[in-house]
């Protein structure tokens, strides 16, 4: 890609802006934003990943004042690049911020769909009195390179917990992508006006909202519908089921084109298939020697694949709900254990306080009893001193008695 050179117009200013974001758990996150680092950052890898997810803020995909006719990712950071090396440095920075995890089938498995966007803007110069001046009328286009995460089976990837929930979201978004392609392909085959259900997830909304009319207002198509090319890489030595599923997606995408008003010649030249009428009851029924066409077989195969994918998605959603229930039960058990520990701690503190009060009360009563005993002893000693003083003193003088 770095070998392609384009001669720019000397009377035009050009600017190239690069942005990168991902769709993780059906939410859009900017990969080039710099989240603030918390002071109490976690040291473990899982804790750092959890904290990183908490600091990131999801972006909105909506219409803005500058783009009323199409939806854009609002609040996305775009970096101006002057050289190919600068763009590659931005790409490496975004890839380092992308969500990855180790599974049983891949040590570095992508847990999100990555979007790498290149905006090319140009501003032609005007002339007034032989002088050039900038018109401030920027226009251009955007090239988006999307790296879709591959579908996973839980028994093959051996995912549990958060990785299992991430795989469920990835498989669900890919299933909705297949449904949108199938609906568009079926509508183009029978000539009906397509209403693509692209609002079921963020991935399909990002891919199809600017290409097909919405279900609320099907007649209001965007002014310049975006175009897309699907590039499929298949491993000849890989899993047969995964490779066949990828090829089915590519076969559906090959038949999808931008919706347009059907021409008169296409309507006239379309072959009509008339059913066989039974002469006995007048009812329409297929012929006796009816064989399914390859298109019908392909349609039934795609329907069967879609049902299988829906079953897998429901199974993963059930597993996710069971994981949430297990986590809730674990939190409940931890809360009960914490309550029991708190109750035991309160009982221990109350017992220690009552024991201390009892010791103080016993000491108070002991001191009071000792003081009472000493007071009694002093009183008794005083009495004894009085009695002893009377016994050891001089004899009592008696007055002489006159005897007559």
Q: Could you tell me the strand content as a percent range?
A: 15-25%
What would you report as the Rg, rounded to the nearest angstrom?
44 Å
| Tally of strands | 12
Large-scale geometry: elongated
Instruction: Give the CATH H-level superfamily of one domain.
Output: Kinesin motor domain
In percent, how helical is the residue content? 40-55%
Q: Indicate the structural class.
A: alpha+beta
CATH class of one domain: Alpha Beta
Largest sheet: 6 strands, antiparallel
Notes on the protein architecture:
Helix content is 46%, strand content 16%. By secondary structure, the protein is α+β, with helices and mostly antiparallel strands. The chain has a domain at 12-34 and 51-260: Kinesin motor domain (Kinesin, 3-Layer(aba) Sandwich), CATH 3.40.850. The strands form 4 sheets. Strands 1, 2, 5, 8, 9 and 10 form a 6-stranded antiparallel sheet that branches. Strands 3-4 form a two-stranded antiparallel ribbon. β1 (12-24) and β2 (27-30) form a beta hairpin. The radius of gyration is 44 Å and the shape is elongated.
């Amino acid at each position: 890609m770095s070998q392609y050179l384009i001669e720019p117009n000397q009377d035009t200013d050009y600017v190239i802006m690069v942005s990168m974001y991902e769709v993780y758990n059906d939410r859009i996150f900017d990969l080039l934003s710099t989240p603030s680092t918390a002071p109490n950052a976690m040291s473990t890898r899982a804790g750092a990943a959890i904290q990183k997810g908490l600091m990131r803020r999801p972006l909105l995909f909506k219409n803005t004042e500058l783009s009323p006719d199409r939806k854009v990712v609002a609040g996305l950071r775009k970096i101006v690049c002057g050289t190919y090396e600068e763009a590659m440095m931005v790409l490496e920075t975004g890839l380092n911020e992308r969500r990855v995890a180790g599974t049983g089938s891949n040590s570095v498995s992508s847990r999100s769909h990555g979007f790498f966007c290149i905006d090319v803007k140009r501003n032609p110069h005007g002339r007034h009195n032989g002088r050039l001046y900038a018109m401030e009328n920027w226009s251009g286009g955007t090239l988006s390179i999307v790296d879709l995460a591959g579908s996973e089976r839980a028994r093959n990837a051996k995912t549990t917990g958060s990785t299992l929930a991430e795989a469920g979201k990835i498989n669900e978004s890919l299933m909705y992508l297949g449904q949108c392609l199938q609906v568009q392909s079926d509508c183009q085959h029978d000539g009906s006006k397509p209403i693509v259900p692209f609002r079921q997830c963020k991935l399909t909304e990002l891919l199809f909202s600017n290409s097909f009319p919405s279900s609320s207002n099907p007649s209001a198509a965007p002014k310049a519908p975006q175009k897309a090319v699907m590039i499929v890489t298949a491993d000849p030595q890989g899993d047969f089921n995964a490779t066949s599923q990828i090829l089915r997606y590519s076969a559906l995408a090959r038949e999808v084109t931008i919706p347009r008003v059907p021409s008169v010649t296409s309507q006239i030249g379309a072959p009509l298939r008339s059913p066989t009428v039974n002469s006995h009851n007048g009812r329409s029924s297929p012929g006796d020697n009816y064989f399914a066409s390859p298109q019908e077989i392909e349609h039934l195969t795609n329907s069967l694949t879609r049902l299988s994918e829906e079953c897998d998605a429901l199974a993963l959603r059930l597993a996710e709900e069971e994981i949430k229930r297990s986590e809730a039960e674990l939190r409940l058990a931890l809360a009960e254990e914490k309550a029991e520990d708190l109750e035991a701690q309160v009982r221990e503190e109350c017992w220690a306080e009552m024991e201390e009060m009892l010791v103080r009360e016993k000491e108070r009563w002991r001191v009071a009893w000792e003081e009472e005993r000493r007071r009694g002893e002093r009183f008794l000693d005083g009495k004894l001193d009085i009695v002893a003083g009377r016994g050891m003193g001089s004899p009592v003088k008696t007055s002489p008695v006159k005897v007559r």
